[in-house]
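Give me the 3D structure for glutathione transferase.
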Amino acid sequence: MQKLNKCIYIVYMDCLQMVFKLFPNWKREAEVKKLGYKVHGDPFSTNTRRVLAVLHEKRLSYEPITVKLQTGEHKTEPFLSLNPFGQVPVFEDGSVKLYESRAITQYIAYVHSSRGTQLLNLRSHETMATLTMWMEIEAHQFDPPASKLTWEQVIKPIYGLETDQTIVKENEAILEKVLNIYEKRLEESRFLACNSFTLVDLHHLPNIQYLLGTPTKKLFEKRSKVRKWVDEITSREAWKMACDQEKSWFNKPRN
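Predicted structure for glutathione transferase (255 residues):
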C-alpha cells in the first residue's frame, strides 16, 4: 500500500511539474490574443531586432510573422499592402499598422510607459527634448556609417558577395568621429541621453551587436567609456532574448 501511494505521489508530482512548465506558454498565448500584437519581419534584421528588444524590455507578448527577405517577399503583395516601401518590420496593434522601427519602438514605449523598463524619460520637457535629440543623433549620425559597415562586413558575405574595403575604410572614419563625440558624452553620463537606459541606447544595439563580430569592433574597444557603455547595453537580458531567434521568433507560440 505504501509503495502504491508512493507511485501515485511520484506520478502526481510529475504531472504537476509538467503543468508548471506549460503554464507560461498558456499565459503567453492568452496575452498574445489579448494584445493582438503582430510583428512582420525577419529575426536577423537589425530593424526587426530593434522592435523585439523593446517588446522584451516591456515583457510583452507578440506574434512573429516571418517575411522571407531572401526571396524578395517584402517587395511583393500582400506585404506591400502593409508597407508600400517594402521594408521590415511592420507592427500591428489591431487597426494600428506601423512601419519604421524607431516609430514602432516609441509607440510601444509610450503605450506601456508604466510597464517594464522605463525607456522614455518623461520627467520634464528638457529631459524629453534631450532624449529626442539623441535619438535623432543615432538615426542620422551613427546609423548611416554603422549600417553600411554591417552591410559590407556581415550581410554581403552571407549572400556570397565581396566586401568593399574602400567603403569599409570610408565609413570607419566617419564612425570614429561619431564615437569620439560619444566618448566625451559618456564621460558625464552613464548612458547617452541620461543616467538611465532609454530608447536612445536601445536603438544603437542591432548594428553594434553585428559590428562586434567584425574588425570594426576595435573602434568601440579603444574608447574606454564607449567600451563600458557597449558592454553594459549588450549584456541586457531583453537584448539577449531579442538576439536569440529560437526563443524570440521561431519557437514562440502562435494563435
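Residues 2-35 form the longest helix (34 residues). Let me know if you want a second pass.
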